[in-house]
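Researcher: Go.
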Amino acid sequence: MAESFKFELVSPERLLISEEVEQVIIPGAEGEMTVMASHAPVMTTIKPGVVTVKPASGSEQRYVVFGGFADVVPQGCTLLAESAVPVGEFDRAELEKRIEAARRDAESTENDEARSRAELYLNKLTTLEGAILPA
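Model: Structure:
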């Protein structure tokens, strides 16, 4: 049995999870990362994606997140998400609204740097759509 550590996932609306876990897979801005007990300290930004949690006392849990950051220390991990919901509560219509808004931003922005950021965000949202929602 793997060593456990404290994990908290917080969104502006609520605390989604606060418990002892064996591992957490986080969609970091530089790529997916797995956090386990006694992990080296690191702080990372989060891209839209799925956080997978393996609690010490139960079955795997998955949460959809839309940005934020994670603070990892040897004793635990806190993920502060801009928005987060359990995968089972996720609404396809909400994701479609976000994709359409990102598409409008990418098309209407005249500044090259801002357009590039909007297109990157749109790409992340469409990748998320393909990863968690069946066609």
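Model: The beta strands are 5-10, 15-28, 31-36, 42-46, 49-55, 61-65, 68-73, 76-81, 84-86.
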